[in-house]
Amino acid sequence: MGKQAEKNHYQVLIVGAGTGGVSVAARLCRALQKPDVALIDPSDKHYYQPLWTLVGGGVRPKEITERPQASVIPAKATWIRDAVSELRPRDNAVVTASGRELTYDYLVVAPGLQLDWARIPGLKENVGRGAICSNYSYETVDSTWECIRNFRGGNAIFTHPNTPIKCGGAPQKIMYLAADYWRKHPPANEYKVIFCIATPKIFAVQKYAETLLKAVERYGIEVRYQHNLESIRAESKQAIFKQLDTGKDVSMEYSMMHVTPPMSAPDFIQRSPLANEGGWVAVDKETLQHPEFPNVFTLGDASALPTSKTGAAIRKQAPTLVSNLLAVMNGQAPSSRYNGYTSCPLVTGYGKLVMAEFDYDGKPQETFPIDQGKERLSMYLVKKHLLPRLYWDGMLKGRA
């Protein structure tokens, strides 16, 4: 694990020790002769979240997605176990929840997203028990498999909110696993699978959207586009959705519901001088440098980068950011460019996966010498076995 914090100024201060923060710290510690790098993060656990889809589908135990945070902090970096309460980029300073003021020469902002459970009345107090489940937190992910296994019929609703979210395909991946499970183990009574998605399309990239629509047809799923979950009445099992195109409210009964909560950048980002109008960290989408503060860089989910918020995106963002940060540290202009690459491994059933990879323009940027628009067992096995190893042993160590 990293060194313990004992001073208040660092050459590079990194906000967040998730995928982005640790990847950047590891690369900097390898590149700099005498690294003076610190990460600020209050969490004592580190999670490999992409596997939560398979946990929710009953394929993997959630325990294998969790490791001690101390085990992933680079040995030459300092871990400051505290939360950030304020960013003061004009003073090159960060204020922590415990009241410490930390200063820096360079700042990397990578705090990830916050899950806004409370924005939907009736969700926070009911998620993870009874008929409402969600793959989006370690605490609630087991409830998804409980709901799927114990489903007896009626409406099974899966939601996708009208905010940016971690991995845009995740709300439907768990739906396909559930639908596949119920085909093989039919519930006692008649049932219907309903996908309420706030966007007008099932997926942004047409090549992969076509395959997903075939999966929808195969499972007999009813898709309701531009439907955003507004509130839940758990006692009567009613979900209230707003039709975004008409502004009308629609009430639906559910026997089980998988909710993807609305998400946003953390509050301290939204109220900071680094944020854009939408509350995300403003950024040059190619260099990952802040447009107003040249000694500030950002990557990952809290950034305003116009691409899907995935770990795979960070895998390409981290080397670009580090290359440009080192250039600026050496008095040069940033010359590395990030093209918006992201990947969304779209699980479409047990043993089936579409490996979507694309850039800012929505153009496929595929890794394998096959048509990745097709559902494949091989790509499912890549997600299940290879990508977790690449994450723990490659990305987090600055090697991949």
Give the helices and strands, then pairings.
Elements: E1 3-4, E2 9-15, H1 19-31, E3 37-40, E4 45-47, H2 52-56, E5 66-68, E6 78-80, E7 84-88, E8 93-96, E9 101-109, E10 114-115, E11 132-133, H3 141-149, E12 154-160, H4 170-184, E13 191-197, H5 206-219, E14 222-225, E15 227-233, E16 238-243, E17 249-253, E18 256-258, E19 263-264, H6 267-270, E20 296-298, H7 311-329, E21 342-349, E22 352-358, H8 377-394
Parallel strand pairs: 1-6, 2-3, 2-9, 3-6, 9-20, 11-18, 12-13, 12-18, 13-14
Antiparallel strand pairs: 4-5, 7-8, 8-9, 10-19, 15-16, 16-17, 21-22
Helix pairs in contact: 1-7
Task: Offer a few descriptive terms.
400 residues; 22 strands; FAD/NAD(P)-binding domain; alpha/beta; five-stranded parallel β-sheet; eight-stranded mixed β-sheet; single chain
The radius of gyration computed from the alpha-carbon positions, rounded to a whole number of angstroms, is 21 Å
Name of the CATH architecture of the largest domain? 3-Layer(bba) Sandwich
Mean pLDDT: 97
CATH first level of the largest domain: Alpha Beta
| Cα separation of the termini | 20 Å
The coarse overall form would be globular
Task: Classify the secondary structure makeup into a structural class.
Answer: alpha/beta
**Biggest sheet, in brief?**
8 strands, mixed
The fraction of residues assigned to DSSP E strands is 25-35%
CATH H-tier superfamily of the largest domain: FAD/NAD(P)-binding domain
How many domains make up the 3D coordinates? 2
Overall number of strands? 22
Query: Low-confidence spans: pLDDT under 50, at least 5 residues?
Result: none
Number of DSSP helical runs: 8
What string gives the helices and strands in order?
Answer: EEHEEHEEEEEEEHEHEHEEEEEEHEHEEH
Proportion in helices:
10-25%
